[in-house]
Every structure is written in structure tokens, then in C-alpha cells.
Amino acid sequence: PQVEAARKAIRAAQVERYVPEHERCCWCLCCGREVRKHLSHGNLTVLHGGLLEHLASPEHKKATNRFWWENKAEFQMKEKFLISSQDYARFKKSMVKGLDSYEEKEDEVIKEMAAQIREVEHSRRELVRSVLEPQAVPDPEEGSSALGSWKGTNSQVASASQQPSYLDLPPAPELDWMETGQPLTFIGHQDTPGIGNIHSGATPPWMVQDEEYSSGNQQIGPSYEEFLKEKEKQKLKKLPPDRVGANFDHNTSTSVGWLPSFGRVWNNGRRWQSRHQFKTEAAARSKQSHKEK
């Protein structure tokens, strides 16, 4: 299907804007290697240009002949995987036409964008002009009311101009507490450390130590010994609860004679014979030790 799509692009080459997907490759069975599917240069990409360039190359033609000879494929199918020099020249001409048409489309898009920008700029200027223009003159029918309001406004302006300004007013009398003769001294802002917010220089709340942890370095979490004990408990939980020695306390002290004495190691013969032999040997050793004393 990729070869068929590439053959259709011989008469009408398609030119698009470059995107990372145009870096895809396809596998050539005859040559046994990857081939670029599209042909990209700068910001433009010619669809199926790389595959057509490979199909028209002499190396691909030699590899195709060798592939057909080794695999004994149908001879009629071989022409579908080859591009003649005439077809490739026709593709180059269509590629030039495609580039020209693409540039024309891009110019049209740029012109449309410029027209939209000019329209927006014109509307913005009209809006600014309407805001900055003075108020419209009132209609003649409303002349009497407008004249009255204009006279009232002028009279207010005249009365305001006749009034003395605040600069001409006499100075305000000083307060009584200023006349006592006891001046006050400004000693500045008193900021209590640790109280306030971070903008006034106080310690952030996440930097303040809690009272329960400020006394000493308290260990966080279990100790290593507690961790080992808990690990041993978790290991014992996986074992069957009815096993032998499940309830045995390993911490209890055991005496030396906790293991019953069976005489000696049972090598051969009957078990009672080895036991009696051990007893006789032990009695003989005890007698000999008494004689030596």
C-alpha cells in the first residue's frame, strides 16, 4: 500500500508544512533496510518523496533483480516496485508545481491574516477616537433647559472662585495636651520577636519547633532492634500455627541435661546392646577413677 500511494503521488505531488511525523521510515524488502518515506527540507515536506527517490535509484533496481532471482517471484509484480527515470522526472515537475501552489496558499493565508489585523487595528482606533471625542452639542429643542443648567453651572463656578481657598485659612489651634510642656519621644516600632508574620520579621510557622520536640532529640520511628523483632514476627506469621514448637519460648533458660541420654551413637546392632555396652564402660571408668583417687 505504501508503494501504491507513492505511485499516485507521481502525477500530483503534495507539499505540506513539516511536522515530526514526517521523519517516519519504511522497510524495503528488496534492499533489506529502512528508507525515509517523505522528503523534507526546511519547513516543507514532500509526501512520499523519499520513497520515490529510493525506488528510482539504481541500487534499488539491482537489489530488486537479485531479490526476484533468489525468491523466484512473479515477473509481472517486479515493475510495481520500480520507478523509471521518466516517471521520476514527471514527479519532479509535479513537485515544482506543488511548491508553487503551496506558496500561493501561504500568501493567501498571510494576506487574510494581515486583513484581519488591519480590521482589528481600525476598530481599536475607532473605539479610542470615540472615547477621546468631546460630548455632543445638545439639540435646539432642549435649548432652554440646557441654557438654565449652563447658567447654574457658571454661577456655581463663580461662587466657588469667590470663596477663599484652604491655603488662606488661619492655622488650626493646637490641642491642650500639646501645651502642657511635656513633650513625647517616639522610640520606634516595638516588634516582639516570634510574634507577627513573615513580613514583619517573625519566624515562619514551619520553622518553629514544637514544645514536645524542643526538649531533646527524640527518635522518630521504631529502633533497629524493634524493627528486627517485628520482622521476625511477620516471618513467623507465615508459618503454620500448629507446627511443632510453635509456642516454645526461646528466651527461657535450659539446663545442661535437657536432652535425654541414649548412651552413645547408634552405629550397628540392636539399640539396647549399645545402651548396655555404654553403661558397662561408664561403670568401668568410674571404678578406675575411684582407684586413682
Automatic annotation (TrEMBL):
Q: Where is the composition biased (Polar residues)?
A: 151-165
Q: Where is this region: Disordered?
A: 131-219
Q: Name one Pfam family in it.
A: CCDC84
InterPro entries per the UniProt record, alphabetical: CCDC84-like (IPR028015)
Q: Name one GO biological process term.
A: chromosome separation
One GO cellular component term of this record is:
centrosome
Query: Mind telling me what this protein is named?
Result: Centrosomal AT-AC splicing factor
Upper taxonomic lineage: Eukaryota, Metazoa, Chordata, Craniata, Vertebrata
Q: By which gene is this protein encoded?
A: CENATAC
